């Protein structure tokens, strides 16, 4: 297989506007259209990383740290295939601001993974079976008291 680029469709990032289901404080989908935020509720990818705990108090610092951890774990799980996966990811919180009743956080990540390459019985390693790249990508998180939404950011 060859390296590929993973991504998601873009969306608006101009402030709370649409109605969508939300992710509750415990990370579970509530399925209730109780919040008007841009972007989409996050469909969590399979993998070993759980959603981070939502901060008890939403402020610039806590929202930035939460969004960075959230995107890091999302990217990690997106690139993780199985126990032989070696995932490397770097994420930065680029900006955090309050917009009405919600917080907008911008996070940029670059990552890759190699899966396979297990040692054989005689101690030699096999070649990597699968390599995946997550080229530098920016996502905007919209966070309020009840919801976490994610959308592709401007590059």
Mean pLDDT: 81
Subunit organisation of the chains: single chain
Instruction: Give the H and E element order.
Output: EEEHEEEE
Radius of gyration: 17 Å
Give the spatial strand order of the biggest sheet.
Answer: 3-7-6-5-4
Envelope shape: elongated
DSSP strand content: 35-45%
In percent, how helical is the residue content? 10-25%
Distance between the termini: 27 Å
From the helix content, strand content and strand pairing, which structural class follows?
mainly beta
Low-pLDDT stretches: 1-22, 28-35
Count of separate DSSP helical elements = 1
Main β-sheet: number of strands, strand sense, barrel status? 5 strands, antiparallel
How would you explain this protein's 3D organization?
The structure is a single chain. The N terminus is likely disordered. This protein has a 5-stranded antiparallel β-sheet, covered by helices on one side. With about 160 residues, the chain is mainly beta.
């Amino acid at each position: 297989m060859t390296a590929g680029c993973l991504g998601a469709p873009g969306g608006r990032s101009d402030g709370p506007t649409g109605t969508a289901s939300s992710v509750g404080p415990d990370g579970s989908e509530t399925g209730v259209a109780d919040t008007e935020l841009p972007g989409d509720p996050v469909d969590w990818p399979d993998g070993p990383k759980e959603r981070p705990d939502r901060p008890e108090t939403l402020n610039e610092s806590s929202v930035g740290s939460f969004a960075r951890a959230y995107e890091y774990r999302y990217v990690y799980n997106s690139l993780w295939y199985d126990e032989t996966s070696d995932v490397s990811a770097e994420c930065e919180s680029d900006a955090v601001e309050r917009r009405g009743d919600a917080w907008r956080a911008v996070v940029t990540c670059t990552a890759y993974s190699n899966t396979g390459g297990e040692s054989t019985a005689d101690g030699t390693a096999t070649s990597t079976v699968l390599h995946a790249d997550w080229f530098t990508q920016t996502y905007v998180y919209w966070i309020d008291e009840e919801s976490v939404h994610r959308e592709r950011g401007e590059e």
